[in-house]
Amino acid sequence: MTSPPTKVDGNVLLEMFRRYLRDHNLPVTQQREAVAGAVFFAEAHVSVGDIEHALEGRGATAEGAAAGAEVQAA
After folding, report:
1. Which pairs with CB-CB distance under 8 Å and at least 24 residues apart come from 62-66?
2. Mean pLDDT by 10 residues, the chain (74 residues)
3. Are 34 and 57 in contact (CB under 8 A)?
4. How much is the pTM?
5. Sequence-separated (6 or more) residues with CB below 8 Å from residue 68
6. Rounded to the nearest 10 degrees, what angle do helices 48-57 and 62-73 cross at?
């Protein structure tokens, strides 16, 4: 029998994500933080639909996050 995975603090993960972005000279944007927060603070496995729903609840959209990522990639 396997034990459940250890719960990791979402704030710790979010700070690690910010550090990763800065270390790789990538901007820390509101869109990236919103998507990361939707994943890091979820109570269970999340789908893309779950992330979209969480972003809508915060006044953000997945399209806005994706558009921000496309601008950064260009």
Report:
1. 62/35, 64/31, 65/31, 65/32, 65/34, 65/35
2. 79 96 97 94 91 83 52 42
3. no
4. 0.68
5. 29, 30, 31, 32
6. 100
